[in-house]
Amino acid sequence: MADPKQAPQPIISREIITLYDHFTHGGMDRRSFMSRLAGLAGSSAAAFALLPVLQNNYAHAETVKPDDPRLVTEESVAVEGGEKGLTGYLARPIGEGIRSAVLVIHENRGLNPHIKDITRRVALEGYLAFGLDVLSPDGGTPTDEDKARDMFSKLTSEVATARAVAAVRFLASYPQSSGKVAAIGFCWGGGIVNLVATVELKLKAGISYYGPQPSADRVANMKAAMLLHYAGLDQRIDAGIPVYKAALDAAHIRYELYTYEGVDHAFNNDTNAARYNKDAADSAWSRSMAFLKRELG
Q1: What sign does the CA torsion over 173, 179, 185, 191 have?
Q2: Which domains does the chain show, CATH number per domain?
Q3: Cβ atoms 116, 89 nearer than 8 A
Q4: What is the side-by-side strand order in the sheet with 87-93?
Q5: What single-letter DSSP state applies at residue 59?
Q6: Is 30 within 8 Å of 144 (Cβ atoms)?
Q7: DSSP 116
Q8: What percent of the chain has pLDDT over 70?
Q9: What pLDDT digit, counting tens, does each position of 176-210 carry?
Q10: Cys-Cys with 190: which of 32, 185, 207, 256 at CB 3.0–4.6 Å?
Q11: How far apart are alpha carbons 33 and 26 in whole angstroms?
């Protein structure tokens, strides 16, 4: 049976990809997006036909099954010491033992099935993995992605960073944790990883996938080693790379930076047929796991 992730997909223009990126990052409401999409696709019917390819399909979000016998998972785990209602999804290899911890920070859709799957993937690498629901104090991640985006539009970076910092400290003191904590984030979450690294000394390592960069004046506060993944076609995020790189160099921060040519923002998201790129995703994941092993042991 053919892999649905690799099935032939409609050809989608760069203009449509750029439009969808603008929409998903709060640049317009759904009605305006659909109107523009219909214009680019040629008709409203064609626009609606493209939506399943542009949007995430969470039927593909179980690379590691939730009931995988190699793992122990827990839903809605409270972040002790954090804001009231702050919770996340915990996954760890079965069996006792002390393990280094990895905080997983989602895109601007919240703690969805894809991010839970990423959390399980990290756990299978031998880590205590925690997928934070940054929206949990505000009622939790909704199933409607438009509602999620609306919630993110009202969430300040300061509040989001504070919630992630609380999760780092929670993982550092967790009974089965070695005290060594890294964070990995995607898109919006990659930006939060960058920000957490500027304020939280307990963070030993940060991995940011196509995340917005922090302001250059904050980079000197970093202590964590950083691994930065960027998509070559992602003009919006890539515009900030030169200033960020210069600030990292000036502050003598240990970092690795990779740009994957010819791929789009969100290339790691294997539930998104329009933007997922297996070669880039596999390469970035391999580098990420090697980086975690070096930094956390």
Answers
A1: positive
A2: 12-54 (no CATH), 69-296 (3.40.50.1820)
A3: yes
A4: 71-78, 87-93, 128-133, 99-105, 177-186, 203-209, 225-231, 255-260
A5: G
A6: no
A7: H
A8: 95
A9: 999 999 999 999 999 999 999 999 999 999 999 99
A10: 185
A11: 11
* Cα separation, 252 vs 90, whole angstroms: 34
pTM across the whole model: 0.87
CB 43 within 8 A of CB 63: no
pLDDT in tens, 60-109: 768 999 999 999 999 999 999 999 999 999 999 999 899 999 999 999 99
In sequence order, the 6+-apart residues with CB closer than 8 A to the CB of 200 are: 165, 168, 169
Tokens of 165: 């910092």
E strand segments, the chain: 71-78, 87-93, 99-105, 128-133, 177-186, 203-209, 225-231, 255-260
Out of 42-56, 184-198, 237-251, least confident range: 42-56
Closest residue by Cα to residue 56 from 140, 117, 138, 136: 117
Tokens of 246: 């210069």
Q: Please state the rounded mean pLDDT for residues 218-223.
A: 97
- For 238, the token pair is 């890539």
